[in-house]
Amino acid sequence: MLIDCDPGLDDAIALLAAAHLTDLVGITTVNGNVGIEHTTHNALAVAQVSGRDIPVHRGAERPLIAPTIDAAYVHGATGLGSVEIPNLERDIDSDDAVGFILDMARSVDDLQLVAVGPLTNIALALRRDPSLPSRLGGFTIMGGGAHVGNVTAVAEFNVWADPEAAAIVFREFPMTTMVGLDVTHRVLMGATDRDRMRAAGGPAATLAADLLDFAVVRADEIAGRDGAPIHDATAVMSVVAPELFTGIERPVEVELSGTITRGMTVVDDRPGGRAGEGPAPANACVLLDADEQAVIDGIVDAIIALDAS
Ligand code: RIB
Ligand code: CA
Question: Domain containing 150 — which CATH number?
Fold first, then answer.
């Protein structure tokens, strides 16, 4: 697995879980939740805490066209809440995330590319090598939503932050597994999960518990949620344990010019598609349901096991 991310509280939890559950060949970073310097620093810090030697390659510092935005109101100014990870002992392996993604796609059999931030790096990789999709074992995003948004009424943050990149990705990948808000808004970690990891006591479990301290409070303050949505680790689990999820294959397009709908993932659920034309070919597997508790338990178990391995 290669994870493209914008750490980010839930990105960090995803990286820790993936470090145990998968052969995580590398991390690429993108501007998103916070700026590229922070997302890259945070990726390096989380990789260091994981105890695994995972390369980190820095990527795009701004969207293709959209203005640069952030979600610091959710993730804190640094992107990791109030967590300080001292003594960073590592540096990036390159500032060419796109080149690393393409190199891994060419050299790693059955590579699972999982993008859990804005899709800028992925779109740029497609422009540099349009054969990218054919070289992968699978492509999964945390992004979008069939029936719901978060950053607007209809748009999810990762797609909204760089909708032109998302439009390119949905058009040029023959099949994208879309792990959207329909599922991730129901995969919530709360005090029980946090306390279980804190009691385990290892460095990864302690970091995850500290991140959750912040995330749970913000989830309640922002949306009155009883628990923090674990968006990105849910995308990792959809690759590792697909049996925990159900979805539908549908055509998906990204709205680019709507005044109030820009960044919306428009899922065409009409049985016959356009009148008389039949359904357009499906380009996404839109996940709609999950065994939420099994997903949460899988993430917590993985992070605790990471420390023990
Ligand atoms: O909308 C949720 C997504 O936006 C997650 O990936 C979160 O980390 C933010 O990037
Ligand atoms: Ca993210």
Answer: 3.90.245.10
What is the C-alpha to C-alpha distance for residues 73 and 81, in angstroms, rounded to an integer? 10
- Rounded to two decimals, the pTM is 0.98
Mutation probe of ligand 1 site: the residue of 232, 236, 238 with most atoms within 8 A of C-beta: 232
Q: How many domains does the chain have?
A: 1
Largest CA distance in the chain: 63
H or E element: which one contains 19?
helix 9-21
Look at residue 118 and give its three-state secondary structure.
coil
Q: Among residues 144, 147, 149, which one has the least CA distance to residue 223?
A: 149
User: Ligand 1: residues whose CB is within 6 Å?
Assistant: 6, 8, 10-11, 32-33, 71, 116-117, 142, 150, 156-158, 231-232
Residue-number span of the structural domain to which 237 is assigned: 2-308
The model's pLDDT over 171-198, given as tens digits with 9 standing for 90+, comes to 999 999 999 999 999 999 999 999 999 9
Tens of pLDDT, residues 47-76: 999 999 999 999 999 999 999 999 999 999
Q: Tell me if 25 sits within 8 A of 108, measured CB to CB.
A: yes
